[in-house]
């Protein structure tokens, strides 16, 4: 039997996989998603969302993908790991996700094929072409320059490519130095960690989504306070700590994650970190 079934759950509540069904809309996540939707629907061009590791960027990316699933209106493509070493590699990857075939596998060939694709979809078929790049902090200067040239493809009214970049905050100083790209970003949004109220809400929301219906709460208020203070509201760290807490209940035959259980977990984590150091 899977461990979560012991608690009357239908599925894993604290998975770190970016499942849109478990997407908790904090005030910032809701605002970020809405601003991205508006930017894309108005065909504003390029949008940048940055946040620290584990703040929910990838889950937000999957949520955005589900918003624009109508293939009669949108062509949504994603690049999940843009750590390419050359302009040619990057162009080949973009061409691949767009499913375009260049006449020749050269820089010029790929550029021409992508340009043709954007005008075909955006003008002839009147579709919105969206390219979302996750982990965009891995983009090198050559790739950013390629993206800048893509943003030059436009009609009198709109950009033909809607570019959405999700990145860690380390990308900001790099992009700020590339003024002709920075100025083309119509939306710049920084995603912060959750508040203590939102931390408690996301734990309850995840349990409810996973099917928890019992009257006795699985986490005491004191335990939830400790979750927030230990994780500093980072969603990924919250998920990992709460997952470990439920495993501890099973191992030690307990009914609720209380402050004692949480203190044991935090102490053990600190011991492991100290040992590695």
Secondary structure layout plus pairing:
Blueprint: H1 27-41, E1 46-51, H2 57-67, E2 74-79, H3 87-97, H4 107-124, E3 128-133, H5 141-150, E4 161-167, H6 171-176, H7 179-182, E5 185-191, H8 196-209, H9 221-231, H10 235-251, H11 259-276
Parallel strand pairs: 1-4, 1-5, 2-3, 3-4
Helix pairs in contact: 1-2, 3-4, 8-9, 9-11
- What do the pLDDT scores average to? 92
Structural classification:
alpha/beta
What's the CATH class label of the largest domain? Alpha Beta
Q: Looking across the biggest beta sheet, what order are the strands in?
A: 2-3-4-1-5
Biggest sheet statistics: 5 strands, parallel
Helix content: 40-55%
Identify low-pLDDT runs: none
CATH topology of the largest domain: Rossmann fold
Task: Report how far the terminal alpha carbons are from each other.
Answer: 37 Å
Strand content: 5-15%
Approximate shape = elongated
Write up what this structure looks like.
By secondary structure, the protein is of the alpha/beta class. It has two domains: 27-191, P-loop containing nucleotide triphosphate hydrolases (Rossmann fold), CATH 3.40.50.300; 194-276, Orthogonal Bundle (Helicase, Ruva Protein, domain 3). The protein is 49% helix and 12% strand. It contains eleven helices and five strands. It has helices at residues 27-41, 57-67, 87-97, 107-124, 141-150, 171-176, 179-182, 196-209, 221-231, 235-251, 259-276, and strands spanning 46-51, 74-79, 128-133, 161-167, 185-191. It has a five-stranded parallel β-sheet with strand order 2-3-4-1-5, sandwiched between helices. Strand 3 (128-133), helix 5 (141-150) and strand 4 form a beta-alpha-beta unit. Helix 3 (87-97) packs parallel to helix 4. The protein is elongated, with a radius of gyration of 22 Å.
């Amino acid at each position: 039997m899977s461990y979560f079934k012991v608690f009357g759950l239908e599925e894993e509540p604290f998975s770190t996989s970016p499942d849109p069904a478990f997407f908790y809309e904090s005030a910032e996540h809701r605002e970020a998603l809405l601003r991205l939707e508006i930017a894309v629907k108005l065909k504003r061009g390029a949008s940048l969302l940055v946040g620290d590791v584990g703040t929910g960027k990838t889950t937000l990316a999957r949520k955005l993908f589900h918003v624009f699933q109508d293939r009669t209106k949108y062509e949504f493509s994603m690049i999940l790991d843009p750590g390419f070493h050359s302009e040619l590699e990057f162009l080949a990857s973009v061409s691949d996700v767009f499913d375009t075939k260049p006449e020749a596998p050269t820089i010029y060939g790929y550029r021409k094929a992508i340009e043709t694709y954007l005008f075909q979809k955006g003008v002839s078929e009147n579709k919105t072409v969206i390219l979302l790049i996750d982990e965009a902090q891995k983009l090198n200067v050559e790739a950013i320059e390629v993206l800048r040239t893509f943003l030059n493809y436009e009609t009198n009214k709109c950009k033909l490519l809607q570019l959405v970049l999700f990145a860690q905050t380390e990308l900001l100083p790099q992009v700020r130095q590339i003024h002709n790209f920075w100025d083309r970003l119509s939306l710049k949004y920084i995603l912060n960690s959750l508040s203590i109220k939102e931390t408690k809400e996301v734990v309850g929301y995840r349990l409810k989504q996973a099917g928890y219906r019992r009257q006795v709460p699985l986490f005491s208020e004191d335990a939830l306070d400790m979750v927030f203070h230990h994780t500093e509201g980072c969603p990924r760290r919250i998920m990992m700590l709460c997952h470990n807490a439920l495993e501890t209940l099973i191992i030690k035959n307990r009914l609720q994650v209380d402050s004692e259980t949480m203190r044991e977990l935090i102490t053990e984590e600190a011991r492991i970190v100290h040992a590695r150091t």
